[in-house]
Design brief:
Blueprint (H helix, E strand, L loop, with lengths): L12 H16 L5 E5 L12 E8 L5 H8 L6 E4 L7 E5 L5 E8 L3 H15 L1 H18 L3 H27 L4
Parallel strand pairs: 2-5
Antiparallel strand pairs: 1-2, 3-4, 4-5
Helix pairs in contact: 3-4, 3-5, 4-5
């Protein structure tokens, strides 16, 4: 997988996302995906691995086989399957920390929902984003390029952030918890 590399925010990341979407839109246009920039590169100012994470969300599961088949024709992407059995079919490009990770899923996918909730909470709470960046830098140094250690070390922070976001949303909407 390569060395774990976390770098300071790069204002080019939204442009790289837009370029990826532009490349994929023509291929998938008749399937009408909605593209979402997720992950740390989608949060302005947040340090991240320089890998653009994006979801292409489709209206129904019946559209996924055609989308998967089409993206598999692109030499730039390697198909990783649904390795976590979350109904998110993953394609990667680049090596190690560099490149892109494309997920194909339905619009109601729970993983996509949580990633959007996490992204939006970090965008609205810079202090939480700063704490996440500090955690990622610490884990990068501790991990000695052990990706399981690095990823696992972020899990509780991500879960807690999603929980905080859901609490905030229920307070704002006045909905019972």
């Amino acid at each position: 997988m390569g060395a774990i590399q976390v770098v300071g925010y790069d204002p080019e990341w939204p442009l790289l996302f837009a370029r990826l979407v532009g490349d994929l839109e023509a291929l998938l246009a008749d399937l009408s995906p909605v593209f979402h920039h997720v992950g740390s590169t989608s949060v302005p100012g947040l340090a991240a691995k320089p890998k653009i994470d994006l979801h292409a969300a489709f209206a129904g599961a019946d559209l996924l086989p055609a989308a998967i088949e089409r993206v598999q024709t692109l030499a730039a992407f390697t198909f990783q399957g649904d390795k976590y059995r979350q109904q998110t079919w993953t394609f990667t490009s680049g090596k190690g920390s560099l490149g892109a990770r494309l997920y194909l899923c339905t619009a109601d996918n729970a993983v996509l929902r949580d990633r959007i909730v996490f992204r939006d909470y970090l965008r609205m709470h810079p202090e939480r984003a700063e704490a996440y960046a500090a955690l990622k830098f610490r884990l990068m140094h501790e991990a000695n390029d052990d990706w399981d250690y690095y990823t696992g070390g972020k899990s509780e922070f991500v879960r807690e952030t999603v929980r905080l976001a859901e609490l905030e949303r229920s307070r704002i909407s006045g909905a019972p918890r």
